[in-house]
C-alpha cells in the first residue's frame, strides 16, 4: 500500500529548522538569483512614465473603485477574531507602515524588526510576537513583482524561518494596496494555505481584523478602501467584536491614513473613523486610547485628554516633511459636514521625527537631488524646453509665409499653453484631492511664467550662436544634442527653487520630498503590553539606513540572510509613552 502522507523534506532536518518545514535555501551572495528576488532602488516618483501611470491608476481608482471593491465579497470568508498573548501573559507588538520601497530603507527596518533583541537607548526590546503592517506594503503599484521585490522578499531575507515564539503578522491595506482592487493583498495576507510571510505567520481572514490582546486591550484594523464608506460586512464583523467589549476594555485602532491631520485641510476626511468609533466602540463603554496610522512618511504624535494619535509611516518609503505639521488640531474638526459627530477635542503635537529643523534642512536637498534622483524628469524638462525654444526661434526669425513659419508658430501657442497649464496643475495635482486655493493658482502660474521666461532667455542665447544659421534640419539636431540637456538641467533647478518656495506656503510639500527620495530617518513602533494592562510605546528611529550589505556568516535558520557592513544604530524618537 502506498503511503500518500506528506513526509518531512530532508533538507529541513538541519539544526534550527522546524521539523517537517522547509526553510528557504540560504543565499551564498547578494545576487538576485541567490536571494530569490531583486533588490530595487527607491521609486523615482517624478519619472514621467511613473507620473502618468500613477495618475491613471489614481483616476481609475476614483472612477471604478466601487466596482473593484472586494470587501463585499469577503463576506464569504471566515470571520475570525484572533487572540495574541505572550508566554509571560503580556505581549510585545510591532507596528510598521509604508514599507515597500527601496531595498536599503525597507530592509534596514525589516532587519531591525527581525532581530531577537534590540538595545535602544538603554532599553532591551525583544522581538515582538505580533507585527502589524499599517498600509502601503508596496510601491508604486500592487503588482505581484513589486510585492515580491519590495516587500515580501526583503522580509523573507530578514526573518527566513519561523522562530520559537512563532510571531504573527496582520496587515491593513493602504491606497497603493488598493490599486489592483486588493487582489495581490488578499493573496499575500489573507489566505487559507501556506499562511506565512517570511518567518511571520499571517493571522487575518479578511482585509480587516480584530485581535484580543492581554490586559483588556484590543487591536482593531480597518479597511476603508482609500477613504470610502466602511462596507456592511465589515461593520457586521465589528458589531460581533463589539459584543465582546465592555467598559473595562481599551482599544488600539489601526487605520490606513492619519485623517486627524488631513482633516485640517479636508474636514470630511475623519468622518469614517469618527462614525466607527461613535457607532461601534462608544456604545460598549470601551475607550479608544490609541489611533495609529501610516500614509504620511514620518513619525508624529498628537496627545489629547484621553487618546494618542500617532502617525508612523516610516517603514521604507521616501521621507515626508514634519516642519509644516499643525501644532494643534481639533478632532473631529469643528467644520465637518457630518450631521452627527463626536464632541470635538483639542490635540497638541507632542513629538515628531525628524524634528522641524532637520526637516527644513532636508528640503534644501531638492536642488542637487532633483536631477540626480529623477533623470527622466530632467530629460522631460529638456525636451519641453527644446520644443519651446524652437517654437520661439521660429517666430523670432520672421519666417513669414514659409512652411517653417507654419510649423513653428502654431507649436508656440501650444507650447506656451502646455507650459502654463502644466505648471498650474503641478501646484495642485488632481490626484491630491481637496480644493484649490488662491495660493495654488498664484504659485502655479508664477512658476509657469518663470519657465516661459527661461525659455525666452534660452531662445535669445541660442539665436546668438551659429547653430540657427545652419541648413535645415541641422538646427533641430543641434538643439536636441546641445540645448536639450543644458536646458533640462537649468529647468530642473528652476523647478527645485519653485518647490522650495512653494513648500513655505504648504504647496507641493509632497513633491518637494518625493523628488528627493530620502531613504534616511526611518522609524517603527515597538509596544509592550504588560499583564496588568499598562501599554508602553517605544518609537524606534534610525537616522541613517544601511547602504552596504553582506551575507550573514551565521547559518542559523532564523538568522537574517544579509547583515549591514556598518551596524545600524537605532534610537528612540522620543522617550517611551505609557498608557494605563
TrEMBL record:
Q: Does the keyword Phosphoprotein apply?
A: no
* SUPFAM superfamilies for this protein: Metallo-dependent phosphatases
Which positions, given as ranges, span the membrane? 45-68, 377-396, 408-428, 440-463, 475-501
State the InterPro entries in the record: Metallo-depent_PP-like
Q: Which UniProt keywords are listed?
A: Membrane, Transmembrane, Transmembrane helix
Which segments carry the region annotation Disordered? 1-37
**Keyword Cell division appears in the UniProt entry:** no
Q: Where is the composition biased (Basic and acidic residues)?
A: 19-31
Domain of life per record: Bacteria
Q: What is this protein called?
A: Metallophosphoesterase
Amino acid at each position: 500500500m502506498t503511503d500518500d502522507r506528506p513526509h518531512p523534506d530532508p533538507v529541513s532536518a538541519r539544526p534550527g529548522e522546524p521539523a517537517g518545514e522547509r526553510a528557504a535555501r540560504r543565499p551564498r551572495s547578494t545576487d538576485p538569483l541567490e536571494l530569490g528576488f531583486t533588490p530595487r532602488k527607491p521609486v523615482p516618483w517624478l519619472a514621467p512614465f511613473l507620473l502618468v501611470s500613477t495618475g491613471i491608476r489614481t483616476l481609475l481608482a476614483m472612477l471604478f473603485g466601487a466596482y473593484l471593491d472586494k470587501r463585499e465579497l469577503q463576506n464569504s470568508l471566515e470571520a475570525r477574531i484572533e487572540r495574541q498573548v505572550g508566554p509571560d501573559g503580556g505581549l510585545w507588538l510591532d507596528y510598521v507602515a509604508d514599507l515597500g520601497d527601496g531595498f536599503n530603507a525597507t530592509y534596514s527596518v525589516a532587519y531591525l524588526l527581525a532581530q531577537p533583541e534590540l538595545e535602544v537607548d538603554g532599553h532591551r526590546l525583544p522581538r515582538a510576537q505580533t507585527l502589524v503592517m499599517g498600509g502601503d506594503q508596496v510601491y508604486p503599484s500592487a503588482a505581484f513583482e513589486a510585492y515580491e521585490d519590495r516587500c515580501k522578499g526583503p522580509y523573507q531575507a530578514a526573518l527566513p524561518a519561523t522562530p520559537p515564539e512563532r510571531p504573527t503578522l496582520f496587515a491593513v491595506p493602504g491606497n497603493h494596496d488598493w490599486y489592483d482592487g486588493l487582489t495581490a493583498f488578499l493573496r499575500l495576507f489573507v489566505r487559507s494555505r501556506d499562511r506565512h510571510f517570511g518567518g511571520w505567520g499571517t493571522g487575518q481572514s479578511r482585509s480587516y481584523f480584530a485581535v484580543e490582546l492581554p490586559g483588556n486591550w484590543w487591536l482593531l484594523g480597518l479597511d476603508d478602501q482609500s477613504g470610502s464608506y466602511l462596507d456592511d460586512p465589515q461593520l457586521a464583523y465589528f458589531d460581533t467584536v463589539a459584543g465582546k467589549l465592555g467598559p473595562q476594555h481599551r482599544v488600539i485602532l489601526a487605520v490606513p491614513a492619519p485623517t486627524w491631520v488631513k482633516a485640517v485641510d479636508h474636514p470630511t476626511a475623519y468622518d469614517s473613523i469618527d462614525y466607527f468609533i461613535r457607532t461601534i466602540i462608544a456604545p460598549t463603554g470601551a475607550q479608544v486610547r490609541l489611533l495609529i496610522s501610516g500614509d504620511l512618511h514620518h513619525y508624529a504624535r498628537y496627545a489629547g485628554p484621553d487618546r494618542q494619535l500617532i502617525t508612523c509611516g516610516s517603514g521604507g518609503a521616501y521621507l515626508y516633511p514634519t516642519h509644516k505639521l499643525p501644532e494643534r488640531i481639533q478632532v473631529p474638526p469643528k467644520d465637518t459636514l457630518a450631521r452627527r459627530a463626536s464632541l470635538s477635542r483639542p490635540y497638541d503635537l507632542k513629538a515628531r521625527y525628524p524634528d522641524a529643523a532637520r526637516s527644513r534642512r532636508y528640503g534644501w536637498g531638492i536642488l542637487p537631488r532633483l536631477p540626480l534622483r529623477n533623470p527622466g524628469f530632467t530629460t522631460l524638462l529638456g525636451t519641453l524646453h527644446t520644443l519651446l525654444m524652437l517654437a520661439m526661434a521660429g517666430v523670432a526669425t520672421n519666417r513669414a509665409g514659409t512652411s517653417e513659419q507654419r510649423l513653428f508658430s502654431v507649436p508656440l501657442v501650444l507650447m506656451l499653453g502646455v507650459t502654463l497649464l502644466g505648471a498650474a496643475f503641478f501646484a495642485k495635482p488632481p490626484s491630491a484631492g481637496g480644493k484649490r486655493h488662491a495660493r495654488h493658482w498664484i504659485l502655479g502660474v508664477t512658476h509657469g511664467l518663470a519657465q516661459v521666461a527661461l525659455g525666452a532667455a534660452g531662445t535669445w542665447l541660442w539665436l546668438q550662436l551659429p547653430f540657427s544659421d545652419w541648413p535645415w534640419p541641422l538646427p533641430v539636431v543641434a538643439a536636441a544634442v546641445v540645448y536639450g540637456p543644458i536646458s533640462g538641467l537649468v529647468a530642473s533647478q528652476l523647478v527645485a527653487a519653485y518647490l522650495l518656495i512653494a513648500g513655505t506656503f504648504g504647496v507641493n510639500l509632497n513633491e518637494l520630498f518625493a523628488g528627493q527620495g530620502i531613504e534616511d530617518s526611518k522609524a517603527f513602533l515597538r509596544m509592550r503590553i504588560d499583564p496588568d494592562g499598562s501599554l508602553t510605546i517605544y518609537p524606534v528611529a534610525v537616522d541613517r539606513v544601511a547602504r552596504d550589505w553582506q551575507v550573514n556568516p551565521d547559518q542559523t535558520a532564523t538568522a537574517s540572510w544579509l547583515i549591514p557592513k556598518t551596524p545600524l544604530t537605532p534610537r528612540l524618537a522620543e522617550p517611551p509613552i505609557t498608557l494605563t
